[in-house]
């Protein structure tokens, strides 16, 4: 992995609770709240100064802008929800560019697992544990936060275990 263990170790404790939170809110209300997106971005703004060399820290804002523009285009084309697009943009600075292929593979695996798990729960007695969740009643729509949240958290955890040494 290209991410440093130093960066992953700094980012994970702050990002992981937000990842869990957006998983829950997307399941419950089919929304990724703006305050969660802003908080994740604020984590990067503050913790990134400690976790990354300054020049790399500045370049990561380009990742944010590129992801935001792509997400806006996909939202306009009705290919994804606005909350998903904003969350992806806020996640982008946490990902080392050298890990993009790995990250996309990880996202693909998480997406399949989340989709299958959600559909199994939706049509099983597990649904009775939270019968009022919107994600059960939205037809073919899927709470993408259920896959996006763990993708970032697992990527950062893998970065701690397998990342590059150094700062």
If you had to describe this structure to a student in words, what would you say it looks like?
With 167 residues, the protein is mainly α. It has one domain (5-162). Helices cover 70% and strands 0% of the residues. α2 runs parallel beside α4 (82-91) and α3 (54-76) packs antiparallel against α4 (82-91). The longest helix has 25 residues, at 5-29. It is globular.
Give the H and E element order.
HHHHHH
Strand percentage lies at under 5%
Number of discrete helical segments: 6
What structural class is derived from the secondary structure elements? mainly alpha
Total number of beta strands: 0
Write the layout of secondary structure elements.
Blueprint: H1 5-29, H2 34-51, H3 54-76, H4 82-91, H5 100-122, H6 145-162
Relevant terms:
167 residues, 6 helices, globular, single chain, mainly alpha
Could you give a short description of this structure?
This protein has 167 residues and is mainly alpha-helical.
């Amino acid at each position: 992995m290209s991410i440093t263990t130093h960066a992953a170790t700094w980012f994970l404790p702050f990002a992981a609770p937000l990842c869990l939170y957006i998983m829950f809110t997307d399941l419950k209300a089919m929304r990724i709240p703006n305050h969660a997106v802003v908080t994740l971005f604020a984590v990067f703004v503050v913790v990134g100064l400690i976790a990354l060399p300054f020049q790399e820290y500045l370049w990561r804002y380009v990742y944010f802008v590129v992801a935001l523009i792509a997400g806006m285009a996909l939202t306009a084309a009705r290919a994804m929800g606005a909350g998903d697009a904003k969350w992806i943009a806020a996640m982008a600075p946490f990902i080392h560019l050298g890990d993009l292929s790995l990250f996309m593979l990880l996202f693909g695996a998480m997406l399949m697992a989340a989709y299958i798990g959600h559909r199994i729960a939706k049509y099983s007695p597990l649904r009775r544990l939270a019968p009022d969740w919107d994600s059960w009643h939205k037809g073919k729509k899927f709470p993408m936060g259920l896959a996006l949240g763990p993708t970032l958290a697992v990527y950062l955890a893998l970065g701690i275990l397998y990342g590059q040494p150094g700062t």
